[in-house]
Amino acid sequence: MNTRGTSVTNTLAIIEIVAECGVGITAKEIAQRLGLPPATAYRLLNSLVADEYLIRTADLRGFGLGARLRGLAAALNTPTVSRAARQRLAEFRASTRFAVNLIGFGASTVRVIDQDPDHPVPAERELTRCLHASAAGKLLLSVHSDWPALVPAPIRSTPNTRVTHAALAADIAAIRSTGHARAVDELLPGLTCFAYPIRSESGTPDAALCLAGATSRLDAMTTFDESARKCAAQLETLLF
């Protein structure tokens, strides 16, 4: 018997079921659906969680898709950045000394789709793994009414990272009020980022224009708020 093949097949079947049923499906339900012994299901689930293909829900009873699978989904749904959009980004970058990056949104993940050539994203892995620690990630969370399911157990990226749902709820309320997100020293020490929504025809943010720079220059960054909002609005018709 090819036990490796059986293990791989069962692992893929588990991922399919979690994707189909959504966040919260339990190990018992997965085992029953696949006809697996509970011990086998738990072993495969623990392996998928350890490798970041799945995440546990806040109550530790259920499962959802993890960062690595959400990143794959985002890659499959990344919008094409047109020549006109690239030109508009280049114009905005020329007007500021800060980093200007275009971030795409999946259902529950973010991904860099146009990186500032002069200011590469310094923590791309952390950006995709820690939605709660970046401005783009918080902007995405603000779209979801069930956003706690996407960050069941927030990890601390820096001493300033919000790691409680109460603190994140306050940030998300502010985003919904102001229309943009910010993260100050939360993803990396000394790094501040603002994220402005770029909406598709449905009216929901499908990408973000992100302005990033040293926290010591936070006041200077805020002077670009109006021009960043204008650029994000112009990119809507160029991207979607």
TrEMBL record:
- Record has DNA-binding as a keyword: yes
The HTH iclR-type domain sits at: 5-67
Tell me the SUPFAM superfamilies matching this sequence.
GAF domain-like, Winged helix' DNA-binding domain
Source superkingdom: Bacteria
What name goes with this protein?
Answer: Helix-turn-helix domain-containing protein
Naturally occurring in which organism (per UniProt): Nocardia tengchongensis
Taxonomy of the source species: Bacteria, Bacillati, Actinomycetota, Actinomycetes, Mycobacteriales
For the IclR-ED domain, which residue ranges apply? 67-240
Keywords tagged on the record = DNA-binding, Transcription, Transcription regulation
